[in-house]
Amino acid sequence: MVGIPAFIHIFLIWLPTLGSILLSFTSWNGIGGLGRIKFVGLTNYQVLFGGIYPPFYPALAHNLIWLAVFLLIATPIGMLLAVLLDREIRGSRIYQSIIYMPVVLSLAVVGFIWELQYAPDQGFLNNVLGTTTSSGHLIDWLGNPDINLWAVLVAASWRHVGYVMVLYLAGLKSVDPTLREAASIDGANARQTFFRVIFPILAPINVVVLVVTVIESLRAFDIVYIINKGLNGLELLSVLVTNNILGEASRVGFGSAIAVILLLISIGPIIFYLARTLGEDAR
Fold it and tell me: What digits encode the pLDDT tens for the residues 204-235?
C-alpha cells in the first residue's frame, strides 16, 4: 500500500528536483533534445553570486525578509490568537471563522483584495489616513519600492495568521486539561503553564507550523505577480525562476540554479529544527 504513494512522491517530487539540480549546471535553453544540453559547471552560480545578475541579491533579500516576517511576527500572532480562542470565550467560533476565512482564498485573490485597500485615491487605507492626492500627502503603498514589500507582507500575513491559528488551536484542543490543573496547583501562572508545559507538548504541531511557514514564505509568487509582476521592489526568487525559464530568454539552466538556491533556503531551517528536536528526544 505504501509503494504507490511512494512511487508517486518520488516521480512527481524528487525526480523533478534532481532534474533541476542537474540542469542548474547547464546552459540549456529548453530547445532541442537532451543531446543539446551543455554542462557549464558552476558558471550559473558564479553569475548569480558574483553580482553579474542584478535582480538576484534584491530578490534573495526579499525572500529572507518574507521568511523572517512570517516566522517572527505572523506565526506568533497566529499562536497568540489560538491561545486566546482556546479559552472558550463568547463568540469563539465566530472569531475563528473570521480569522480563518482568508486561508480559503488564494494569494492571487488576496492580492486583488489588498490592491483595493491600498489604492491611491479610492483605497480604504489612504482615505482613513487622509493621504489621498487631494490632501497633497499621497502614499503610494504598492508603487513606492521603499514600502511596497512591507505592504504586501501585511496582506500575506493576514492570510498566514489564520492558517497558523487553526493548526495551533487543533493542537491545544488535544492537550490533556489535567496538565493545566496540575501546573496551576504547583503555582504556575498562565504564561508559565503555556511555555513550560503546553508548548513542549505541541512539538509535532510546531514542526508542522514551521514547515508550513517556510513553504508559504518561500513559494510566494502569485501575490507579487498580481500586483506588479514582481518588479519595482517586489522581486522574489520565485519570480526570477519563472521569468528565466518561461520568459523570452528561456534560460532553463540559469533559472534552475535560482530554483536550487531557493530549495536550499527552504529546507535549511526545517532540517535544523528537526535535527535539534530529534536530538533532544534522543537524550
Answer: 888 888 888 888 888 788 888 888 888 888 89
Phi, psi values for residue 224, rounded to 5° = -75, -30
Answer for the pair 17, 263: CB distance below 8 angstroms, yes or no.
Answer: yes
CA-closest candidate to residue 163, choices 211, 113, 201: 211
pLDDT tops 70 at residue 7: yes
CA–CA dist 260, 252 (Å, integer): 12
Could you say which DSSP state residue 8 is in?
H
* Residue 70: HSE in the Cβ half-sphere, 13 Å Cα cutoff: 26
pTM: 0.84
Report which of 63, 11, 13, 38 is spatially closest to residue 252, judged by C-alpha positions.
Answer: 38
In terms of pLDDT, which residue wins out, 83 or 271? 83
Helix axes 148-173, 92-100, angle to 10 degrees: 140
Can you read off the three cell numbers belonging to residue 148?
Answer: 511596497
Q: What is the pLDDT of residue 208?
A: 86
For residues 126 and 131, give the distance between their C-alpha atoms in angstroms, rounded to a whole number. Answer: 5
CA max distance for the chain: 73
